[in-house]
Known about the structure:
four-stranded mixed β-sheet; 21 strands; Glycosyltransferase
Amino acid sequence: MANRLQYETSPYLLQHAHNPVDWYPWGEEAFRRAREENKPVLLSIGYAACHWCHVMERESFEDEATAALMNELFINIKVDREERPDVDQVYMTAVQAMTGQGGWPLTVFLTPTGEPFYGGTYFPPEDRHGLPAFRRVLRAVAEAYHTRPGEIAAAAHQITAHLREAQQLNAPPEPLQHAILDQAIRAVLPTFDQVNGGFGGAPKFPQAMTLELLLRQAARTGEVSLRAMVELTLQRMAAGGIYDQLGGGFHRYAVDAAWQVPHFEKMLYDNALLARLYLAAWLFTGEASFRRVAEETLDYVLREMAAPGGGFCSSQDADSEGEEGKYYLWTLGEILDLLGPEDGRLFAAFYGVTAEGNFEGKNILHGTGTLEEVAARSGVTPEDLQAVLARGRQRLLAAREQRVKPGRDEKVLTSWNGMLLRALAEAAAALGREDYRTAAEETATFLLETLRPQGRLLRTFKDGRAHVLGYLEDYAHLIDGLLALYELTFAPCWLAEAEALADAMLDLFWDESLPGFYDTARDHEQLIVRPRDVFDNATPSGNSTAVDVLFRLGVMLGKPLYQQRALTVLRSFASILQRAPAAFARLLIALDFALGDPPEIAIVGDLAAPDTRALLAVVRERYLPNRVIALLRPGEPATTPLLAGKTPRDGRATAYVCRGYVCTAPVSDPVALAQQLGG
């Protein structure tokens, strides 16, 4: 018999709708019953693509005896962390405070008022690897709750007090200067892996924001070593198993330091952030392989992640047919059968395929050297090897399409779609890809029309239903994407929508007493604390992204309030940024913009005319991470102060390069514009 989760839209919750556990979704009904029956609450948080969430479900939540114990002793609540990041953030912080670590599945025990008193992550069905059996934990927690209520209440109050203190993280305001960026970079360098790229050892995550920070610093200072670090990392990741060598796109992280063995789930946000990073690296270095990876990644998203009703899905699972990575793995025999002995031999040599395999008897495809190196080892020309690899990838991809695909979380999240919107718009501008432009415009229209049904931005959409009030990150990332879309199309409607959302963001989330932003709006459901996440993790925090977009919109629109709010946040974190740069990479990127004297580029001309497009090409073919650009069509009113008073010269498209609204001489010659932009 299905439980209450059958009425939800989240694929993760629906996965648990037929568990024998008497699950409740998050809400007052569950807590009211807990109070009435004086039972503790068992809160379980995860997400659809989480491998260990599936493992714990199979081992415990589908087990009749375990479920009976849960139903007898607890009121059980299941939460999708992607749908309710506020709930996840509050209780993840609590578990990290209690145990020193966190992760998913997250298992937290609460009082009937929602205060946490004990927790952990994955619990096995039997005592294993130092972890207690889940049923033993259930009995012990329930017994403690009923026999030592005073201790439980004291522990819960203490943890809640810690959570309230954690939300107030601030430091005395400090002046902003380039020395902060320099010190932050120095703090990152000791963790860099000089052999494999990336930071730290296993497991290794593709820290896109930290790498973008290094790229910006390399561009600003000319430090060759920083450029080399970024190039090494991007090359190693693109050659590794973390990158899908056949279909494009990145898995979430690698379990080893060399990027070879991935955790196989694919997340929309990773691919949006990494596509932008590879695109930026191509603009900066001219390395063609970086452009290829950026395009393959976005092509993968368009092909595999488009949601049925519009927008893009959240993730693809690590598992298919109950096995981790099964969809992506190959045996040597399969490759030889598909490609023939000679092509198969060369393909296997390039992608490291052996009879023994490199993952549970099968093979994760990964590069074993450059095209020239493998060709020399294999006794063929690079051109012949390249042709073999192209044929082989096409045939293997077609064969893989016949397999059972990993499950897909089809809910559309506003914030993650905002990240993709920016990636698509920037790629369309830099590469001239009309399909990316079309996808960006359709995504923006979908988000504004479907996720804002009565004028209020919502978080999630699936099965024709949008719900949950939007969080700070939803507003900030959608603004981010809309601003990039304006700089692609120069349609004033996108800039107007970004401004309206920014005004709403300041109204709903800003708190002068912090100073800064909360994650939830002032009229959102009240949790035991009002969450405020200031750290950049796998995704940029709402605070970091809000600061970044307010700076850029403030310059574009000439709105000092936006920049003042952004500066207030940066100054309050100035001292912390230098000590923990990896936790504030997006905020440091915003600081780079604030200190970077950003070029404000105004172009007057017909967007379809060759002379206008020639000027735009000069801007778009350069790595100018801090620039803002606006365009005025002849005869139209200026929509921003940046365009005010700008006119074409001698009937030709004209560009104005300004800083602080003080402009150099207008130019119509692309070569002259290139010189003004730095060569």
